[in-house]
Amino acid sequence: MKFYMITCVRGHAGNGKNTDIKFAIAAENMVHACKIAQKMPSVKHTRIVAYGVEITETEFLQYRQISAYDRYKQGRRR
Q1: Residues with Cβ within 8 Å of residue 55, at least 6 apart in sequence
Q2: N or C: which end of the chain has fewer CB within 10 A?
Q3: What pLDDT is stored for residue 78 in this prediction?
Q4: How far is CA 35 from the centre of its chain?
Q5: Please, what are the domains in the chain?
C-alpha cells in the first residue's frame, strides 16, 4: 500500500468559484487514489483531479489527524 496526497477542485464556493481541497489517501497506485478522491463529498465530480503526489507514511498519518474538511474551514478563517 502506498500513500498519496490528492488535491481536488472543491465545489459549493459560490457561483463560478471553487477552491482546492487535499486528501491523504492510501491506495495501490495513483490512479486508484485519484478515483477514491473524486468520489469524496464536496468534490466537483465533473472535473479531474488537480494533482497528486506520493507521500511517506509519517506524512500520511500526520495529515489524517485532522479531517480535510476541518482543515479547509480553518484555512478560510485566517
Answers
A1: 3, 4, 5, 24, 63
A2: C
A3: 46
A4: 11
A5: 2-72 (3.10.20)
Mention every residue, 6+ apart, whose C-beta is less than 8 A from residue 36: 6, 23, 25, 27
Query: pLDDT 10s per residue in the chain (78 long)?
Result: 999 999 988 876 667 677 888 899 999 999 999 999 988 888 877 777 888 999 999 999 999 988 877 876 665 554
- 38's CB contacts (< 8 A; 6+ apart) are 8, 45, 48, 49
Residues 18, 16: Cα–Cα separation, whole Å: 7
